[in-house]
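Tokens as discussed.
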């Protein structure tokens, strides 16, 4: 694939002729031991009224802390990443295109003992929640094939998270991606996305389980110490679905790697279309293992449209 262009880090002009036109920036992270993690998504969806903003914290032995706001107004400046709404301020900056992205958040979140409560009103304790985090590129950025305007960047992640009166220092790993254009139809088709890091420094990314496309998918492996991606256009996904649609175990197979995936810490989202359709979007910090005994951590998601 061609190199990612630094100018593509900026926001893009929406195509008003495309319903559900979407532009999103995803950023996730996890500690080296997998005991804590989180993710951020800022999604520009003009046809649905503005910005979808998600941010969360997951912890072993702790409750999900989550911000899910689908009514955030679009920034007045088409170049800006700053968003404001009731109980929410967030700004995002890319001071080093393809090298570093920073995120800052001040908000109120909800604390949920059962992550599946997101699907049933998300009633919980309201807590102050914020962070200052930087995603720094780990070696290289990966340009997707020309089926979609998208790139993925493996990262190291540094900074801190604030929850109530607690301060959590972050020095870990993560992934960020940026996609734009076309229709993101959460209610029309399913998919499985994943990205993470093995203990030996191997990085991976997959997108697969696309309906009607067999084992077609997009994936890469970035071997330890290398900046050359081993690419894949076939991603096999098997998943054992448990209660509330949360996946108990999954198996991913693609060029150069097989992963047994155990989702551990969930942070799902409920997506409601104006016509009343609902899609479930369970996303989890997961532990993985390879057939040769290597272990690792990453995030995995499953879009689950209505039947």
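Sequence:
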């Amino acid at each position: 694939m061609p190199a990612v262009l630094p100018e593509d880090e900026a926001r893009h002009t929406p195509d008003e002729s495309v319903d559900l036109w979407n532009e999103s920036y995803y950023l996730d992270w996890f500690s080296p031991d997998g005991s804590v993690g989180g993710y951020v998504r800022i999604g520009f969806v003009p046809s649905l009224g503005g910005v979808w903003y998600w941010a969360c914290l997951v912890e072993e032995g702790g409750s999900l802390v989550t911000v899910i706001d689908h009514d955030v107004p679009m920034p007045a400046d088409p170049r800006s990443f700053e968003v404001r709404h009731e109980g929410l301020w967030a700004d995002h900056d890319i001071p080093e295109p393809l090298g570093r992205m920073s995120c800052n958040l001040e908000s109120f979140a909800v604390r949920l003992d059962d992550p599946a409560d997101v699907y049933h009103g998300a009633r919980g304790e309201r807590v102050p929640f914020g962070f200052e985090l930087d995603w720094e590129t780990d070696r290289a950025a990966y340009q997707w094939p020309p089926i979609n305007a998208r790139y993925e960047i493996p990262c190291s992640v540094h900074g801190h998270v604030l929850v109530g009166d607690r301060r959590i220092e972050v020095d870990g790993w993560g992934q960020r991606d940026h996609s734009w254009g076309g229709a993101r139809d959460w209610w029309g088709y399913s998919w499985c996305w994943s990205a993470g890091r093995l203990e030996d420094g191997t990085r991976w990314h997959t997108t697969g389980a696309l309906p009607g496309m067999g084992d077609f998918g997009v994936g890469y492996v970035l071997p330890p110490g290398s900046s050359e991606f081993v690419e894949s256009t076939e991603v096999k996904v098997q998943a054992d679905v448990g209660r509330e649609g949360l996946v108990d175990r999954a198996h991913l197979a693609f060029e150069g790697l097989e992963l047994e995936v155990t989702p551990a810490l969930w942070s799902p989202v409920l997506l409601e279309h104006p016509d009343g359709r609902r899609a479930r979007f369970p996303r989890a910090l997961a532990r993985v293992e390879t057939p040769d005994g290597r272990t690792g951590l990453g995030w995995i998601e499953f879009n689950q449209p209505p039947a």
